[in-house]
Amino acid sequence: MSKTVISSPSKEVTIGFGEPFVMIGERINPTGRKILAAEMKQGDYSRVESDAIAQVAAGAQMLDVNAGIPLADEPAILAETIRRVQAVVDVPLCIDSSIIEALEAGLEAYQGRALVNSTTAEEEVMERVLPLVKKYDAAVVAISNDETGISEDPDVRFEIAKRIVERAQDYGIKPEDVVVDPLVMPIGAIGGAGNQVFDLVRRLRRELKVNTTCGASNISFGIPNRHGINNAFLPMAIGAGMTSAIVNPLHDGLVQSVRAADVLTNNDKNCENWILNYREPPKEGEAAAGGREGRRRRRRG
Amino acid sequence: MSKTVISSPSKEVTIGFGEPFVMIGERINPTGRKILAAEMKQGDYSRVESDAIAQVAAGAQMLDVNAGIPLADEPAILAETIRRVQAVVDVPLCIDSSIIEALEAGLEAYQGRALVNSTTAEEEVMERVLPLVKKYDAAVVAISNDETGISEDPDVRFEIAKRIVERAQDYGIKPEDVVVDPLVMPIGAIGGAGNQVFDLVRRLRRELKVNTTCGASNISFGIPNRHGINNAFLPMAIGAGMTSAIVNPLHDGLVQSVRAADVLTNNDKNCENWILNYREPPKEGEAAAGGREGRRRRRRG
User: Fold this and answer.
1) What does the pLDDT look like over B171-230, one tens digit per residue?
2) Which ipTM score applies to this complex?
3) What average pLDDT does this structure show over B89-99?
4) What would the pLDDT profile of B32-50 be if each residue is shown by its tens digit?
5) pLDDT of A281
């Protein structure tokens, strides 16, 4: 039972087998968001803060924070973004950058135990990211590609993930602190992309006993009604054993589909979280008329 | 690759591994529908007909037809219901009764190759239903309970299903014409109900190589926001290998969740059915302005 524990000063989140699925909110990312990028560059973090609050309110248990803005001082901006986000929400964060100095600045600024996003199996990347992960006692997302790019062969992607997990151990990072991203391909381009990921997740869980994550919305890239695909993909991935994903919790129906999957895998014990979120309100006048009975009924859901 | 072929005079539906999931519409059933029961008893089939049309329009590839009305002439009503339904829709039917005479009257009236719903492993039931299935060259739903009732132990339910498949072979019915219902328990009462079904479906597929079905909405009995649970349950069951289910295709989001699962299992090749149903309409004025280009764009989806 692999458990990856990520924390903020006041909250601990466990990504793990037998745990509720962890949704990592993806919104705080200036890539493809021109207005947000310009604001962050100018030191205006109001949208970052409101995006953080909205995602947590929608159900995200963690947030990914990325400050990849061309020609900007990414380390400084990422660190400040993390401070601002930690000031308004209490969930643990995933520190997301492809620039090592930004990761380090982010880890330095972060209060708690972070998830570093990410290393690949590229030698140069592992050599720089893994010591940092160890130094800050963080966990790390391992993306299953290497110098040769992303393989379409799931067996190759499995072997690459295995290589990262082994290399991490050389640096003193336990397998339970490596969260593998098996890489989700667009189903519109590769018809077998869904089955590939489900098989890979099952195998990573069974053979490497590691937690998994992914950029879930990739699956529906380029086809219509993307939410419809994403909202079925997540329950299926969870059924195959995936334990976390980077998602937009504000997308219609997404959080509900994940919570339902938690009920169905019995990781939402006694449907407690489900009932808390979706119990029907008492009928008109029932609470007033029923008094204690009305309240009791609501508690039962 | 087990294939159960069901047909009407003009349509053939294959329940099978590697085939799109088959949704069997459940609405034509007077159980719990007082008005419908009264109408059917009086020979008024207008609601039966409109329910048939609506379910097929919503996406059901087959319809279940049940005429279980207390103190009524079930064989005659079931036969007439089948005739009326076949007159307004062209999908194959599932003939549903616990009364052997009604099944026989239904099979006699039905045009095509029917799915008989159902036999259990109760000796008396198998002895009466299976010869009928053979006589009419039908397929049959095998519900995994016996004289001792429904076991909470999935291993017992597997053994019971196996017993029915073997007995069916004694009567000359091939395993591919037995569609096993592993029995879906309410998740609100049995926390492991989801995992149980997913495991059973995988096992039935791997070891007995049979198709599977279930009354899907049972899973959410007694808990709030049932559609939310059902719409995650179906993709997860499909991911585990389930090949058909008895559902209400008019329920919000249900058909979409099944179609998305078909995309993700690669049983909707090139997302063709998905794109057909969910492609975005051309933007205002685009078709008119674009002429041939507008049409081409739409065709591409």
Assistant:
1) 999 999 999 999 999 999 999 999 999 999 999 999 999 999 999 999 999 999 999 999
2) 0.92
3) 98
4) 999 999 999 999 999 999 9
5) 74
Look up residue A15 and give its two tokens.
Answer: 């990504």
A-B contacts at Cβ under 8 angstroms = 125
Question: What angle, 0 to 180 degrees and rounded to 10, lies between the N-to-C axes of helices A46-58 and A74-88?
Answer: 50
User: What crossing angle do the helices spanning B226-240 and B254-264 adopt, rounded to 10°?
Assistant: 20
Looking at residue A193, its amino acid is A
Sheet bearing A115-119, strands edge to edge: A211-212, A178-181, A139-143, A115-119, A93-96, A62-66, A22-28, A244-247
Q: Looking at chain B, which residue has its C-alpha nearest residue A191?
A: B266
**Core vs surface per residue A16-48: b (16+ CB within 10 A) or e:** beebbbbbbbbbbbbeebeebbebbbeeebebb
pLDDT at residue B292 in the model = 39
Inform me whether the C-beta atom of residue B271 falls under 8 Å from chain A C-beta atoms: yes
Q: What is the CATH number of the domain that holds A250?
A: 3.20.20.20
Does A192 have pLDDT greater than 60?
yes
Question: How many separate helices (H) and strands (E) can be counted in chain A?
Answer: 12, 10
- Range A153-179 average pLDDT: 97
The maximal CA–CA distance of chain A, rounded, in angstroms, is 69
User: Which chain A residues have a beta carbon less than 8 Å from that of B235?
Assistant: 232-233, 235-236, 239
Entry pTM:
0.93
- Find the closest chain A residue to B225 by CA distance: A278
Domain extent at residue A170: 3-300
Rg, Å, chain B Cα set = 20
Residue A236's contacts (CB-CB under 8 Å, 6 or more residues apart) are: A194, A198, B235, B236, B238, B239, B261, B264
CB of A224 within 8 A of CB of B279?
yes
**For residue A282, what are the CA distances in angstroms to A295, A296, B224?**
9, 10, 12
Q: Is B231 in contact with A260 (Cβ distance < 8 A)?
A: yes
Mean pLDDT taken over chain B: 93
Neighbours of B152 (CB within 10 A): 13
* Residue A275 pLDDT: 97
Q: What is the pLDDT of residues B12-25, one digit of tens each?
A: 999 999 999 999 99
CB < 8 Å from B in window 218-257 of A: 219, 223-225, 228-229, 231-233, 235-236, 238-240, 253, 256-257
Determine the Cα–Cα distance for residues B148 and A181; give it in Å rounded to an integer: 47
The count of C-alpha atoms lying within 13 angstroms of the C-alpha of A167, restricted to the half-sphere facing its C-beta, is 23
Domain count, chain B: 1
Could you tell me whether strands B93-96 and B115-119 are parallel, antiparallel, or unpaired per DSSP bridges?
parallel
